[in-house]
Amino acid sequence: MDSLDRRARQAFVLLTGRLVTNFDAIDYLCNLAHLGVDLLDVSVGGILLADRRRALRFVAASMEWSGVHDLWEPRGGGPSMDAFLGGSAVWSPDLATEDRWPDFTATARTAGFAAAHAFPMRVCGQAVGALSLLSAQPGKLDVEAAELAQTLADLATMAVLNERAGHRPTVGEQLGHVLNNRITIEQAKGVLAERLHVTIEDAFSVLRGYTRQHNLKLADVARAVARGDLRITSPEDGHVMPSAGSGHSGRRGTARWTAAR
Known about the structure:
48% of the residues lie in helices and 16% in strands. The chain has 261 residues and is of the alpha+beta class. It has two domains: 3-162, 2-Layer Sandwich (Beta-Lactamase), CATH 3.30.450; 178-242, Arc Repressor Mutant, subunit A, CATH 1.10.10. The protein is globular, with a radius of gyration of 19 Å.
């Protein structure tokens, strides 16, 4: 069996298992974006979902930085919006010659990217978002890689639909729930970046690290940080103190807060 095929099968087994075990949609989507980078030999992967106005909003990526929204949500559209609206993959193998999306192209090239690919996330033939892949090297994905990328986009769709599935929400409600959770995470990242004097990317790493260490959900931890119910006071994620009046107690270095499940 080909090495890529074997690694893809192993990764898909892991991702499918996580759909039913203590499921956390945004953390799952971040892992999926990382998987896309590893399997498809690209530089960055991102996932965007449509809001009620059919505008694409950033939800998860393989890496985060302060200007991430300028890249994932550019004015004037981009490959992700075209894949979303058209319902099929969109290619830009050489951004140096690209003229379809001036704002996106300028932002992507300034950030060091030379190629972009996007794949639609679909539910019963209706697009609900897109998987975006950016590469520092020009070139187009081959047929096998493109099929794999679309499979990742389909898994991302399953993850979004699986969020709150027990409550029987509509697709729009599921999308809105994930997007609202992302807003909360952005707020928590800002709080941690300022408090810990770290970058936005490092703040997100701290947030995810705490979440995994204590087997909680990313959005729940982010909500507690944003509200001030949880104070993470060290980038090493081991020195945690409850906020004054939060009603939790304990020794330093241990978790004092339990997320609502």
